[in-house]
Amino acid sequence: MSVELPADADAVQTPAEVADLLGDLVIGREEHLNAPGFVIKPNSVVDALRRLRDQAGFDHLSCVTAQEYEDRYESIYHLTSYDDRTQEVSIVVPADKENPVSQSANEVFRTADWHEREAYDLIGIEYDDHPDLRRILLPETWQGHPLGQSYDQDQPQVVPLREHQNPLLEDQTADNDSETMYLNIGPHHPATHGVLHIKTVLDGEQVVDLEPDIGYLHRCEEQMCQNSTYRYQIMPYPDRWDYISAGLLNEWAYARTAEELADIEVPEYAQIIRTMGAELCRMAAHFLALGTFALDIYGDFTALFMYSIRDREKVQNILEELTGQRLMFNYFRLGGVVWDLPEPREDFFEMTRDFLEDLPTALEEYHDMMTSNEILQVRTVDTGVLPPEVAKSYGATGPVARGSGIDYDVRRDDPYGYYENLDWDVVTEDGCDNFSRLLVRMREVEESAKIVEQCIDLLEDWPEDERNIQSNVPRTIKPDDDTEIYKAVEGAKGELGIYIRSDGTEEPGRFKIRSPCFSNLQTLPEMSNGEYVPDAIASLGSLDIVLGEVDR
Amino acid sequence: MAGVLQGEVLLPEQIADLLGLEGALGAAVGALIGAFVVGNVMLAFTGVAGPWAKRKITAAFTDRIAVDRIGPFGLFIIVADSVRLLSKELIIPDGADRPSYDLAPLILPASAMLGFAVIPMGSLGPLNIQLADPEAGLALVFAFASIASVSLVMGGYASNNKYSLMGGLRAVAQNIAYEIPLVVTAMSVVVFTGSLQLSTIVAEQSTTLFSIAGVSIPAWFAFVNPFAFVLFLVANMAEIGRNPFDIPEAPTEIVAGYQTEYSSVYFVLFYLGEFLHVFLGGAIMATIFLGGPAGPVLPGFVWFVIKIWAFFLFTQWCRSALPRVRIDQLIEIGWKGMLVLSFANLVLTAIIVGVIA
């Protein structure tokens, strides 16, 4: 299962111990707000990460942040542990300003593949020994690296169609004698859940090779956040990452990071409202995941899809009452939430309780129609298998990791909000297949309902004069220059992390989003190779990706 | 061509009589008018089923309302949809294999229409609605029904699209895997009747099986041999390609299978053909397992219509409730399960019939 650890490795790793472990690889120290940072030489990345993974239990490469300074390029590997999320360490790898080359971590963590491609694409750092260093979010013909400092925003991007890679070209030139068939699944295809292009090589009906091609929905979310002020302007953007009802969960990711960065307290009352709102969002997101997974397996707009949309609708109505919006909530503020529960409060509580009361019946119905349906079981059990070691190597989180038996949930492992004080469980299933991921989501809906119910109880009894929804937050927030932080929350799809480096102004110097879907989608080839096309489609459905979050 | 047991006069002859025509001319005119009428009735059913009934039924299963804006119960959507579909641009992809690309959408509905020629649809007033009653009627109707896969393969390969090609190939694999159990199961009925003639098969089922409290249960083969009925029902679902066996189309996997590239009139024809095949499947079921047009009080033709619509309803129910099996699982069920079961059923039926009779 997990990597073999020496006997003393499970103990808490102090910065000094990590420094000892890395030994002479370290050429400098940095202090990030969330973790100690160790500066290492660009050619010792593999060595350092391997030592940390094998000997100190840092088996989760959560994110790779790249950025350009006046005098250097820098990649930061945010490492943590699946067993103990509070263990964090940042490996900082500077690269030469003139010739930014750094060693690829792909050999140690498979997830580095896409993360480094993104860093190359947007910043311009080149990674040695990377198996496939191509652009990932932008088109192949893009000129320059848009998040680099020397990038000229005004230069025309001439990318005519004839110069652009023709997606059919590869196909046309295929060897006529070959026994495999190349097939483009997407960008327009009923099962891609957005604009995703999957380059597939088929042998008959079986998938020989499969490569997701992303970037169709890239909207420069990171850059937009870098050009917005901490206090008010950034908060609306997170709603647009995972736009499938998970808005509040995304907002929390930014809120948590920025609050820690600027040292802002959140009143307890506001934390409870946040927790309730976030769990409602998770339920809505999981309902949609169930419905679309059913759609992928059943292949039509069947009863299950409509039922799950119906139940999601009820959650949406509650969220609409709470936030005033149905899609782009923009409800959180740094230091709390924007307004209190809607008046009359009794009606809101009653509405939510009604929904929670009906929920077991609804879930029963899903179990009747889905999980106990033999055909569905034949289709999903033991298909799209993702062993836990592979899932860890790819940085899979959320229901995808928990469906592979990895007991990892940021809500419990690195507590925030009000989760610590509530009674709920982390759901895991050991099947590692599509069926397990489905089950995890269905059971998580129950857990979320438990949390919401407890929050409602607390809110109902909260004394009227202590309903403090926002702490006192200054109008402009200017964190100290060069303060760095990486914090994550448990989004609907997994660990949603934000890295912020402040540059002394009221706008972030670097804003990096760690999207759970981005890492989860990377596992698709592992799950699908050798399987049949319908199973590859089912696996894609069970990953529950949102392209808005993958591409940002 | 009159069979041994055939008692009633067929529709073409009746029409010829009414018109006062005799000989070859009478037979030709009668047959033409009869075919025109039967064909149009079936087309009208499809017209109601496709744009309206299917939506209404699915909506009822999935907690929705569906079309209700235009006309009573939204019925005029049929007109609106016809105009919409027929006025769309007919897009023919580059590199399409022209004659077969155009022929495929014609063959599918045509094959189903041919099948209705031999189905005994019961009487309506003085008319006995059956166009022809050849001695090999059952074999004929299966032959007509399976022409459909030719159309699907043609459409699939002529579209110059990989999804279409996969759909076409899946259609063949599926049809071969299920045609055999289908026919073998039907043979177990023939063991009872001793004849392939459809009117004979219907007549055989009109006897009373047993009586409960004065209500006599007819000897429909669905009651006589329920096992064969279930087998046939499943094989029939695969044969007409409905859930859980809608593998040749498989939206979300291979987009829309063989019909991916078809638009406008060609698309309508494919759609029409599929619904006609569902109705033909229902008609075959009704004829060999459900006593054909038999039923109390109402005229035979009305009962026949009720039965084929009931089958249509069943297909829509499955569509709303059942997941689709995978292609390899489908083939496995067909060859390893259905085939064995259908032969076992045939042998057992033959032994039982041999011992009793």
Automatic annotation (TrEMBL), chain A:
> Source organism's superkingdom?
Archaea
Q: Does the keyword NAD apply?
A: yes
| Domain spans labelled NADH-quinone oxidoreductase subunit D | 302-552
**Residue ranges of every copy of the NADH:ubiquinone oxidoreductase 30kDa subunit domain listed in the record:** 39-155
Q: Where in the cell is it found?
A: Cell membrane
GO molecular function per UniProt: NAD binding; NADH dehydrogenase (ubiquinone) activity; oxidoreductase activity, acting on NAD(P)H; quinone binding
Question: Known EC number(s)?
Answer: 1.6.5.11
Q: Does the keyword Transport apply?
A: yes
Coiled-coil-forming residues are: none
Q: Which UniProt keywords apply?
A: Cell membrane, Membrane, Multifunctional enzyme, NAD, Oxidoreductase, Transport
Q: Which InterPro entries match?
A: NADH_Q_OxRdtase_suD, NADH_quin_OxRdtase_su_C/D-like, NADH_UbQ_OxRdtase_30kDa_su, NADH_UbQ_OxRdtase_CS, NDH1_su_D/H, NiFe-Hase_large
Query: What is the enzyme's main class?
Result: oxidoreductase
| PROSITE patterns linked to this entry | COMPLEX1_30K (PS00542)
Catalytic activity of the protein: a quinone + NADH + 5 H(+)(in) = a quinol + NAD(+) + 4 H(+)(out)
Gene Ontology CC = plasma membrane
The way this protein sits in the membrane is described as: Peripheral membrane protein
Principal location = membrane
In the record, the note on similarity to other proteins reads: In the C-terminal section; belongs to the complex I 49 kDa subunit family.
Its quaternary structure?
NDH-1 is composed of 13 different subunits. Subunits NuoB, CD, E, F, and G constitute the peripheral sector of the complex.
The protein here is known as NADH-quinone oxidoreductase subunit D
UniProtKB/TrEMBL annotation, chain B:
* Superkingdom as given in the UniProt entry: Archaea
Protein name listed in UniProt:
NADH-quinone oxidoreductase subunit H
* Membrane topology annotation: Multi-pass membrane protein
Which keywords has UniProt assigned to this entry? Answer: Membrane, Transmembrane, Transmembrane helix
Name of one Pfam family that matches: NADHdh
Tell me the InterPro entries matching this sequence: NADH_UbQ_OxRdtase_su1/FPO (IPR001694)
| Phylogenetic placement of the source organism | Archaea, Methanobacteriati, Methanobacteriota, Stenosarchaea group, Halobacteria
| An annotated GO BP | aerobic respiration
